[in-house]
Write a structure and sequence with these properties.
The chain is built from 15 helices and 12 strands. The protein is α+β, with helices and mostly antiparallel strands. Among the domains are: 128-216, Arc Repressor Mutant, subunit A (Orthogonal Bundle), CATH 1.10.10; 303-414, no CATH class. A hairpin with a 4-residue loop joins strand 11 and strand 12 (367-375).
Amino acid sequence: MLCGRQAACVLGQADARAVSVLEVKVSAEAARRFLVARHFLAPARSVEGDLDGVLEVFRKLGSIQFDPIAVAGRNHELVLHARVAGYEPAWCDELYERREIFEATNKALSFIPTGDFPWFRYGIVRKGPRFHAAALADNAAVAERVLDRIRAEGPLSAHDFERETGATKNWFGMPENAVRSVLEAHTVMGAIGLARRDGNVRYYDVLERLLPAGVLAQEVPKREQLLHRMLSRYRAHGLLGAGGAGGTFDRIAPPAERRERRKELVENGALVPVEVEGVRGKRLVLPEELELLQAPPEPAPSVAFIAPFYSLLWDTGLLESMFDFDYVWEGFFPPANRRCGYHVLPIVFGYRFAGLLEPRIDRAEARVEVLDVWWEDGFAPSRADGFVDAMRDALRRGDWAAFGHAYDRLRRLLAPARDSVP
């Protein structure tokens, strides 16, 4: 079995070369069932509910994207809630406090197992290490004062410093608070890391106080880091094509180098090419998942709500060709241009996408409301065997501020104009 950080270690092994020449062809139905099963959705909420269950999901997927948007729960909470029985947000917080998971950039800001930190130590981020090195040089006095205070006082946020002007610009080309610039730059350059969050306020500390000495002491050659990061994206999705989709491999390395590293992973058995019926181009699968791909289980009639930034949704072309599901996250669209709502969650039932749900947390009432729901063409909720009970179970198991209250609201939204959930 090849895990992400073992990819470089298998290079040149005869058995790995044997795996790489396998010719694997599967039906579209087998591929659909495989994806649902390997993403812990057959059935949903089937991972044992405790800290070990959360770590099991992290080990399988490699990383889970963090996003501060909390319309119906933050992204990683939605991911874990759909997979871990009785998931509680405090579990992930506890794992972070225990430093069993850590924050790093892997396609986007993500939580990763702490043991993988050496492969992500110098993050590939939206502005790049050169930009951040320049930010430290251009704001040298501020950078020194900020780092000295963190070393002396422990975790601090940007709010603990007076605003400073500097040469760096924000997303909109306007002058950026130099304190924020150097905090981000020190993080990218490996001097500090995230100690905790209070809401969306980030507190930073020096890495020596955040991570085990053995993890910090481990140096990983650049080539092995690239191999690991590329493999981590394939691991997160499970059935990506060679070029990925939606910026999957952006900023890992220039395109030519990515092609070489991908070829290396295939030739040495860390990835296996697969042909899927009705899908253009070959897909790449982890060798330890070939057995599941070729003999996926019959999915249970369960319902799960998929976090909008979850890895399964990266390849929207694959969703359309294999699941007949046309998915676009419309959060950045003007309201008049949206087909559905601002922050909607795809609904998976069995091994199909059944529709979209738009929930909102009402914090004043300590509940989640379902604002609307959109069913896929051809899907009739009351006539889909097992769906009504599965939908009721999914809603009533919610841990996002008593999500179970939403079921009555859902019934009112659907009846009588639509095929309703009785």
